[in-house]
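Training component of the fellowship. As part of building independent skills, the fellow (R.M.) carried out the full modelling exercise for a liganded target. The chosen ligand was WTA. The inputs are recorded below so that the supervisory panel can assess the work.
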Amino acid sequence: MSTKKPAPPKTIESVLKEDRTFAPSAEFSKDAHIKSLSQYRRLYRESIKDPQRFWARQAEKEIVFYKPWKKVLQWKAPNAKWFVGGQTNVSANCLDCHLETDRANKAAIIWEGEPAAPGKPGEERTLTYRQLHREVCLFANVLKKNGIKKGDRVLIYLPMVPEAAIAMLACTRIGAVHSVVFGGFSAQSVADRIQDCAAKMVITSDGGFRRGGVVPLKENVDNALKIKVGRKSITQSIQRVIVLRRSENKVKMKRGRDVWWHDEISQVSDQCPPAKLDSEHPLFILYTSGSTGKPKGILHTTAGYLLGTKLSSKYVFDLKDDDVYWCTADVGWITGHSYVVYGPLANGATTLMYEGAPNWPGPDRFWQIVDKYQVTIMYTAPTAIRAFMKWGESWPKQYRLDSLRLLGTVGEPINPEAWMWYHRVIGKGRCPIVDTWWQTETGGIMITPLPGATPTKPGTATLPFFGITPEVVDDQGRAVPKNTGGKLIVRQPWPSMLRGIWGDPKRFVETYWSEVKGCYFTGDGCRQDSDGYFWIVGRIDDVLNVSGHRIGTAEVESALVSHKAVAEAAVVGRPDEIKGQALVAFVTVKGSAKASGDLQQILRNHVGKEIGPVAKPDQIRFTDALPKTRSGKIMRRLLKQIAAGKAIQGDTTTLEDISVLAKLSRSEE
Ligand code: WTA
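Fellow's submitted model of the complex:
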């Protein structure tokens, strides 16, 4: 057990009081996979009494292995190997398995594009399992033709189009390791990720539509591939760029490096047997923010991830064959990986993908889509729900939302007010809400209601999923009593857990496995109520949750100080009605630079360029000095209070220069 930085507050307070309880309706429970709380409790107890037996049984039932595993789990903390000795393939489990069933001609992906202009319908496409299988085989052969071999890293930087899922599945078919980069990230972020995982190929498009504009993805890739440190290109590992035609945006194609998706698939066969891959073969790397400046490449592997996402999709969303399931997340985030692509497809479900924004061309866009496709399950983020609340009930009221039977949320704690609105206005009081807690690192949902079984309370993710052992502990790693705040850890390994940080085993151990010996530390604060329900309080490290996106304050700080006018920067969060948290940057400028409104704009754009628009500070405050301890550590606690417009409270005796505080409170935007 060690107490390491960043030190969490002594007590983690949770002030939320919420007594309303909503039991699942008898009508819902009757047809649900798990029909009652007692059934859940019995299965859960079994699953944690002998986890290996439980997971073995599930793997036998849910996953097709070419070669059976010899050992369910090989565990030497923090290194887990699941289904050791087995061989399988994710794309085969998501596609081929369904071709010999009634699902072969069922819609696998329903895609709705962003309308080209207000008043125009969005483009639409449906791919059946058979069609998706063919597209994946074609593209897998394109990968091979372009030199991609098992284990090679492939960066995917695409809009929300079916080809994003096709590219991911094609990688898994041949054992290439994909790393999807969210289309809102900048050229610099693309380059950093290519450099970190030494990717051999980038798959991108000539553009992506977003709120009527075109995001110049290919141009960003071109710029990324030009970035040098000194005289050395940081992306020299890239040998090929495959470009999808999506927007008719004019792009430059570099001869010998860049090829068109449509040209390539016209030259290959549509037969591509899936590679037989070890259970622990790397599946993908997904970068996420941590508490230092450098994003972490979270590594997931084959069989365990597949099982975790398949099982959780089935039970949490209560998936049935006639569901139209819509998860609104972008494939650039873990939710898009696990619950747009892999989990639903492994279950043979129909997954809906939407390319655009929730409020373009109008704030009714989501409800239009629900109505048009008769969506039955909708999974979205609290930040979106808060925005819908602000836009008003009149938008959803124009549509028939009767097809909906289940609602879900993910990404941050949902405030009870937003939960109630979702329940009343969208769910019409009929639909259970599953508030699902999990992380990029956990691969799949960890704490969640099961919709036919668990009585819900607004604001809590309720109880653990099968086989998952979360616990709230104090700084010494001891379980705390009910209704006491503490750190959220997970005691036992689980199949879809991360297997490491790409290229950085030391950071893996330090970040996740040093807080409580042998246990996974989530970085979240939490409390359990008297019913054992888990209430997530939020991050206790320097990671913020802005509109459901994880942003490391250190990353934004290092982007700011990379600008020539900036001497020093400290970034903190302040509560925000829509985004959950907003970014406030305190900046000291270099001697010759002038703190001005123009410079604020320049710095915001600079962060946009360095990381991506999601990381642009909402407010930049110039200050002569930052509050520091005598050892030079910035006192973020004080900055947070100032950013939130609160009076300064707590100990300030460790401040090196107390006069800084008065100056800071005067620092204005
Ligand atoms: C937060 C997203 C409360 C939490 C799947 C976690 C939540 C971080 C919830 C992971 C929830 C996610 N209630 N907080 N239902 N879901 N979080 O990696 O702080 O983007 O650690 O994964 O989001 O964010 P990530």
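The panel noted the following from the submitted structure. The first strand starts at residue 65 and ends at 67. The chain has 20 helices and 33 strands.
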